Amino acid sequence: VERKYRALRLSWQPVAALQDGSPLEGFAGYNIYRTMRQGIYEEGPVNSEPVQEPLYEDVPEKIDETYFYTVRAARMVKETMVESGPSSELQVAYMDITPPGMPTGLIAVPRHGGVELKWIGALQKDIVGYNIYRREGGGGFVRLNSQFITETSWIDTSAQEGKSYVYGVTSVDASAKANESPMSEPAPVTFKLQ
């Protein structure tokens, strides 16, 4: 299986002969079965017609679930479609891997007690919070918060007067992977009180 955006691209080795090795006659295609309960396939195939190539793209209904797939070859015997036994079962963790939109409009303002940060939150409904990052000098960005920030403002009380910092903010979604957005445009500031 390969992931292609929301689609799962399933592929398998084509069938070339019958189980006993005799030539395959009356080949009708492949049927693909999907379930959320391992080994239990109570529904019909997900494809409406047998698939001719050993390739199928499926888009499951629910994200952050585990799905199981199996494939059966089908052939026509007189006027009846007969399926092979199932292929080995494939387990797929179908996780949300799309990061949310990044916050915009970040500003950093020196205040008594720290540097106040304000930004415009991402528009998605499944945002659980934000991460705050700070860089000083030529170093890399370091995350400042241990818990997600749920508001669109925050005060960095660890900032030291007279020092210059660059801040960035990211969005985090509610998926099982807790996807994190790219960082916002950086906001530089020198922490000096008038």
Provide a descriptive summary of the structure in words.
The relative contact order is 0.17. The protein has 194 residues and is mainly beta. The strands form four sheets. Strands 3, 5, 6 and 7 form a four-stranded antiparallel β-sheet that branches. The protein has a four-stranded antiparallel β-sheet with strand order 11-10-13-14, with no helix packed on it. It contains no helices and 14 strands. Helices cover 0% and strands 45% of the residues. The protein has strands at residues 2-4, 7-11, 27-35, 55-58, 65-77, 80-83, 90-94, 104-111, 114-120, 127-135, 142-143, 153-156, 164-173, 187-190. The mean pLDDT is 93. It is rod-shaped.
Provide a compact summary of the structure.
By secondary structure, this protein is mainly beta. Helices cover 0% and strands 45% of the residues. The chain is built from no helices and 14 strands.
> Please, what is the average pLDDT?
93
* Sheet/helix structural class: mainly beta
Assign a percent range to the helix content: under 10%
In DSSP terms (H or I, runs of 4 or more residues), the helix count works out at 0
**Low-confidence parts:** none
Topology order in helix (H) and strand (E) letters: EEEEEEEEEEEEEE
Q: How many individual β-strands?
A: 14
Question: What are the salient characteristics of this protein?
Answer:
about 190 residues; 14 strands; 4-stranded antiparallel β-sheet; about 0% helix; rod-shaped
